[in-house]
Amino acid sequence: MTNEQVFQMPFSKVYPLLENKAARKGRSREEVLEVVGWLTGYAAADVERMLTESISYGDFFRNAPCMNPNRSQVCGTVCGVRVEEVADPLMRDIRILDKLIDELAKGKPMEKVLRR
Predict the structure, then answer these.
(1) Contact 102, 44 (CB under 8 A)
(2) Per-residue confidence in pLDDT tens, the chain, 116 aa
(3) Is the pTM of this model over 0.90?
(4) Pairing between β-strand 81-82 and β-strand 77-78 as defined by DSSP bridges
(5) Cβ atoms within 10 A of the Cβ of 75, count?
(6) How many of the other CB atoms lie within 10 Å of CB of 76?
(7) Contact 21/107 with Cβ under 8 angstroms?
(8) C-alpha distance from residue 111 to each of 31, 35, 102, 108 (Å)
(9) Which among 18, 76, 86, 99 is least surrounded, fewest beta carbons within 10 Å?
């Protein structure tokens, strides 16, 4: 799948997959919203509203109110790809969210997931 295909995917289709990944390991919807909010600056109500709109996954990140500057601390692999080596900044942010949700699902404490 190309970057552009990922960017065009509907946010309303991708976000539930992130929630399900965390929920399968006993993590809550609120924790997923906290991770998304930490990364993007969106409030939980904003995320909920966007789930009902026809926004693309790429636009969800492009329109983020305040991408967290500490996201550069997120490193490691997601699906065999090193997050810090992803050249496209938008794809890197998408991979960072995936990595954060992976860490959450693996049981890491929220303080470590959010690099506090």
Answers:
(1) no
(2) 788 999 999 999 999 999 999 999 999 999 999 999 999 999 999 999 999 999 999 999 999 999 999 999 999 999 899 999 999 999 999 999 999 999 999 999 999 999 98
(3) yes
(4) antiparallel
(5) 11
(6) 13
(7) no
(8) 11, 10, 14, 8
(9) 76
Name every residue whose Cβ is closer than 8 Å to that of residue 48 and which is 6 or more positions away in sequence.
Answer: none
Q: Is 79 helix (H, G, I), strand (E, B) or coil?
A: coil
d(CA 9, CA 97): 15
Contact 104, 23 (CB under 8 A): no
The residues with which 82 forms a beta bridge, in sequence order, are 77
DSSP readout, 12-69?
HHHHHHHHHHHHTTT--HHHHHHHHHHHH---HHHHHHHHHTT-BHHHHHHT-S---G
For 4, half-sphere exposure in the C-beta direction (CA atoms, 13 angstrom radius) is 0
